[in-house]
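Take a look at the protein record below with the fold in mind.
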Amino acid sequence: MELGYVGLGNMGGALARRLLVSRRLRAFDLRLEAVQDMAEAGAQPAQSLEALGQACEAVLLCLPTSNEVREAIFGEGGLAAGMAPGGIIVDQTTGDPNATRVMAAELAERGLELIDAPVSGGPHGALAGTIAIMAGGTEAQFARMRATFEAISPNVFHCGDVGAGHAMKLVNNVIAASVRAATFEAVAMGVKNGLSLAACAEVLAKGSARSYTTEFTLPRLVDGSGKSNFALELMLKDVRLATQLGVDSGAPMFMANVARNLFQQAVNEHGGAEDVNELIHTVERNADVKVVGN
């Protein structure tokens, strides 16, 4: 199967590199330097999205939002203009499940298929082959792409029909974001009452409050290596999508909406492009206490 990859940022680039361990791969990104880096890793550069579609039976994408996915597929000179009937597009973006279902229906009218397969575990997990892949599509579509997914990681899960992978990713990310927000606020309270950040990191990683935030993020804040390579604006986007899905489906999300407002405050204060762990400085200001460096 001829494979293509679109979107070579932190996440997409890591996924593409993992595929290159065992697969031939054509690659495209609007940033020429990203394409060149991938070419040096062994990928064949594509000159355009349409050309990539013409050359590939399956194309995977990892882009910031579903809006960019739509443009890459249906825009002038996009993938849909080049792919032959029977081709399949795999969206690994953290996207909007409803938008994904609409795009899948539009592509079906052209004889093309679209499934979703977002991931969780960060670029380091992608490169290490340990990342979780959450797929949404028919049984036949999942079977068709399973070997490709397993070339990235053995942790592959078929979550349901198209859109289900994105729904699962939103469940994952809104939980992770809410836990991060609650942990930062609680630690700030603890520090204000005489605890150190180091003590909080050590104890919370071993108790019933343990989470990714306590096991990985807090120790990084302690030793000064707190960058996560994930932008505040992307986390806010994921929480916003999750809470909107709750509204659309009549599932109240009281706690998640509180987290969304806190992340919005952090974006307003620090800028959306800043690392997600800048949230700790918003929490510090709200609590009038210095947490990092304490």
In short: The chain has a mean pLDDT of 96. The first helix runs from residue 10 to 20. The chain has two domains: 3-162, 167-287. The longest strand covers residues 132-136.
